[in-house]
Design a protein that fits this description.
By secondary structure, the protein is of the alpha/beta class. It is built from 6 helices and 11 strands.
Length: about 220
């Protein structure tokens, strides 16, 4: 069994209500929901949020919100992992269930990539599968890959970044790990740099619109 879990809080520091901001006529969170609906192996599409506003919006796009997330797991200091763990525990997700944790600001995400990732994960013995992009920078957010494309920290001259799209793993491994990237068994799936962008500023948002428009020429402005 496999489920999709989109994590979306209402607050954001630099872009107000980023996760439901209108993007080419629709709330941006509707894009990953629409993609997930095309994929048969997702038994359910859930959204974890503390916001009644977000809950109301995503239900219109046929995603489920079984409960509202606690406020203490919806601040800027709380990472993705505690949110996923809380959801798995409260909904009593079976340990062998494959959970695809997806970020809401991912309009570039495609069903093809999710299907490819799922197939790769099922064939792998790794605990997690994570899309990454190549970077020329070496900083606190960058990491390297070993010969098996497992995420690590070493002195390689090839650096990568989390693409900020999704994480695939079994429920039991989400509960047991202390780090999604550095679990010791997190396999990277390298994607092109123009297939994803981590949106934190208005400049990033404008860049995302340009990339999306380039890849979706029929989009209505």
């Amino acid at each position: 069994m496999c489920i999709a879990l989109i994590t979306a809080r209402i607050g954001s520091k630099r872009i107000k209500k980023k996760n439901i901001k209108i993007f080419f006529g629709k709330p941006i969170i509707s894009y990953p929901i629409s993609v997930c609906k095309k994929i048969k192996f997702f038994k359910n599409i859930y959204v974890s949020t503390e916001s009644k506003t977000i809950s109301k919006i995503v239900k219109k796009y046929e995603a489920q919100v079984p409960f509202l997330r606690p406020k203490n797991l919806a601040d800027s200091k709380t990472g993705t992992l505690p949110v996923v763990k809380d959801f798995i525990r409260k909904l009593k997700i079976p340990y062998n269930t494959v959970v695809c944790c997806i970020y809401p600001v991912t309009p570039m995400l495609t069903a093809q990539l999710l299907k490819k990732s799922y197939r790769t994960f099922k064939k792998s013995s790794s605990k997690f599968l994570i899309p990454v992009i190549r970077t020329n920078e070496y900083n606190s957010k960058s990491f390297q890959l070993n010969k098996n494309n497992v995420i690590t920290k070493n002195n390689s001259d090839k650096n990568y970044l989390d693409a900020g799209q999704f994480y695939l793993g079994k429920a039991r491994d989400f509960l047991r790990t202390k780090s999604l990237l550095f679990s010791g068994s997190s396999k990277a799936l390298i994607i092109k740099s123009n297939e994803a962008i981590d949106v934190n500023t208005n400049k990033d948002w404008k860049k995302l619109k340009l990339l999306f428009r380039k890849q979706n020429k029929n989009v209505k402005i």
